[in-house]
Amino acid sequence: MFLKKETFKYNGQSVVLHQISALQRVEYFDYLASKEAISDEGSESLRHTAQLVRLNVDVNAWLISRSLSHETPECDENELHQTIQKTWPSEAINEAVEIVLALSGMHPKSADEAAPSA
Question: Rounded to two decimals, what is the model's pTM?
Answer without folding.
Answer: 0.86
